[in-house]
Write a structure and sequence with these properties.
With about 250 residues, chain A is an all-alpha fold. Chain A has helices at about 1-20, 20-45, 45-80, 80-85, 95-110, 115-120, 130-140, 145-155, 160-175, 190-195, 200-210, 215-245. Chain A is globular and about 55 Å long. In chain A, about 45% of the residues are buried. Chain B is an alpha/beta fold and about 300 residues long. The chains are: A mainly alpha (about 250), B alpha/beta (about 300). The interface between A and B is medium-sized, with 21 and 28 residues.
Chain lengths: ~250, ~300
Amino acid sequence: MTMAMTLVHTRYQLLRTVRIPIALIGSAFFPAASMIFFVVPAAGDDPTGAAYATASMVVFAAIISNLFGHGVGVAEDRAQPWDPYTRTLPVGLLPTFAGRILTGLVMMLLSMVPVVVIAAVFTEASVTVGGFLTALVVLVVATVPFMLMGLSIGYLLSTKAALAVVQIVFFPLAFAGGLLSAPDAAPGFVKAIAPYVPSRGAVELMWAAVGDFEVRPLPVVTLVVWTAAMGALAVFAYRRDEGRRYR
Amino acid sequence: MPQAPLAAPDRTSPAAEPAVVARAVGVTRRYAGHTALDSVDFEIREGELLGLLGPNGAGKSTLVNLLTGLRQVTSGRCELFGGDPRRPENRLRIGVTPQETGLPETLRVTEVVDFVAAHYPDPVDRGELLDRFGLTPLARRQTGGLSGGEKRRLAVALAFVGRPRLVFLDEPTTGLDVEARKALWDRVAEFHAGGGTVLLTSHYLEEVEALAERVVVLGRGRVLADDTVAAIRGLVDVHRVSLVAGELPRLPGVVSERREDGRVHLMTTDPDRLVRELVTRGVDFSGLEVRPTSLEEAFLTIAGS
């Protein structure tokens, strides 16, 4: 029953999201544009460099998609009377919430399609089937902190505030994590702070999945710590919002 | 002629009364420092069409939110078909109207109906529902493109999707033109005639008069009156008589007296008698005005007295 209702809620949330295609184009645009303007001219002929750069852009797309999708999406839903109405239907809280997570996941995967297509068509980047599947799993797991960050923002802030915060946060996250430079070519200060930024652990794991990059422990520990912290914040934000609106 | 005494309804015995479908027992609900409901007792029995009246802020929405499981009581107890409204399975037999401003804009009319229908074991046929509410020509439209009246019709229709035994209708026809209003009232009356129970919230007496049999008046979080429509009509039939005058004698039928900017405002249930009294007693007055009060004013007068 819960499973079936989760699928129903996912289906309608996806439908609602897909009807505003600009949302999808929004998350796909930056990483795809970066591919065309920077990655293809600079590293297109180098198979390893192109594969790493593509992995970076995929993580970048995942960050944007999660932050915008959940941050702005949740804040918007909270402002609509439709949300309280659905709570009078004979359904628990889980299907709506699980539907939200699944919708976010699908939108995230869709947002990186252009990056992958550009990489396959215009660069020498190549990846084994095993590597690709590993990368997919790594991506879903390693971007959990960004999903939780998005949910926290959405449950804590109003739509306008969420939009502003997401816009301020997403670029530094990518830049400071070294997503916009090759693995060892980041500027000095970026190299110094990157290990403490969650996007670094995520991208290092992705690099390891598509090439033979050696993951260092610190960024991964950082990623785990961020995941735990964002999880705690998201739970707090969700409870606080529920408490305000439905107690 | 042989009688069938067992089948005859016995009005005096509580055992013969229809079952209570929703109930509030000593319910108090506070929001950050302000009391929205103050130990309210309330019940709706199967087959009733009950009007819940009161000015804005009287606690109507709070009571409905508690009965539909959206919020928790601060103290007291709410029941829906004998169970806790916060448990999803106890909401299977109710239907609620969303605010028409909240319909998901990008979904089509059919999709919104299907989404709601997916939550019920035996929903009504979509085509039939759309037909009954005059929505068939709009079926393929996205709700964001509907007019206010069309959205309202869809919102009311959604309350009936799951074949409910009890529907909560919140100001169902506010802002509709006469014809659309009449059509919606007919749908509600049909549902009621088929044995359905209705809780109708409104601050328009006219709407409640057209549909309800029993009326509960809420004001400042308390039940002010619980009676037939006719009795409530009499209760809120208050006029305002205002005039410029000095100290007034004790006058009959005056519910309240207030002085403002040199004028005296008297609230009364019988303005004719009041004016006759003023004249017979030789009260020196000028600038006489007699006006019917709005329902809101009338409620506040009852609430204050």
